[in-house]
Amino acid sequence: MRIAILSRNENLYSTRRLKEAAEARGHQVDIIDTLHCYMDITSNSPKVRYNGEDLPQYDAVIPRIGSSITFYGTAVVRQFEMMNTFCVNESIAISRSRDKLRSLQLLSRKGIGLPRTGFASKPDKIQDLIRNVGGAPLVIKLLEGTQGIGVVLAETTKAAESVIEAFMGLKANILVQEFIKEANGADIRCFVVGGKVVAAMKRQAAEGEFRSNLHRGGTAKLVRLTKEQRATAINAAKAMGLRVCGVDILDSNHGPVVMEVNSSPGLEGIEKATGKDVAGLIVEYIEKNAKPYSSRSEGRG
Predict the structure, then answer these.
(1) pTM strictly above 0.70
(2) I need a surface site. Which of 43, 131, 228, 251 has the fewest CB within 10 A?
(3) How many other CB atoms are found less than 10 A from the CB of residue 121?
(4) How far apart are CA 160 and CA 134, in angstroms?
(5) 215 in helix, strand or coil?
(6) CA 259 to CA 180: how far, in whole Å?
(7) How far apart are CA 270 and CA 278, in angstroms?
(8) Which domains does the chain have, with CATH numbers?
(9) Are 16 and 24 in contact (CB under 8 A)?
(10) pLDDT tens digits, residue range 233-270?
(11) In sequence order, what are the residues at sequence separation of 6 or more whose Cβ sits closer than 8 angstroms to the Cβ of residue 262?
């Protein structure tokens, strides 16, 4: 098969591993810089151009779309969809997961466990917004934040009021969520491929830190999931429409709650913590589900 990986950096661990895994199984792989793609949106003949030429018809595309280029990245993925190329994650599913508010609303509608969450533009009573999620301590998040950036733990009601007022003064969109104290600074990253959890790790925040992101000094180790945790991760991926994703779960007093569903989860942490060939499992999923272009149309474009 001929596979394209949409990635800004061919040297990133995840990009390298996907390329290695696909080539080891006999596939031809091209790494395409998403922002250098440009689209020919012609009736009945959509194309993606790159370096002055039409890109060939790929059998499958693996989108590795960073959050900072979501709008343009999903447009490129959508163009490949218009060309009937199998995309590991579809553009609409990536867009859903990147909108934190929308994703929480979709998960809520499906009855998936969530922390109590509030969202408001200009609440008349900030105190009521705070009470609605259970009071302090609570977590305040920028909608556009990633990798733990823009996430603040407010220990007291006064601190929460100050942070909320400051963010609103900057016209920032924020979520206010209950603080899951019983998680003890740990979360579980479940890696879902094709509706199955293929690997899971427990991430523990560094001492004095409540965010467990590995980018912020957290550590990771292999974890065995409960039936409820596994079902929560699978249902969250399904609600987003994502075939490949990372689902971050906290254990709360009222069961597993989903913190985030990541459409471009990193492979380094999960592969090193679990010893599993997650990249290979993604390629295996493509092999089972992507219909080769040669069988869809005569010849290649």
Answers:
(1) yes
(2) 43
(3) 8
(4) 12
(5) helix
(6) 11
(7) 8
(8) 2-95 (3.40.50.20), 117-179 (3.30.1490.20), 182-283 (3.30.470.20)
(9) no
(10) 999 999 999 999 999 999 988 899 999 999 999 999 99
(11) 97, 245, 246, 247, 248
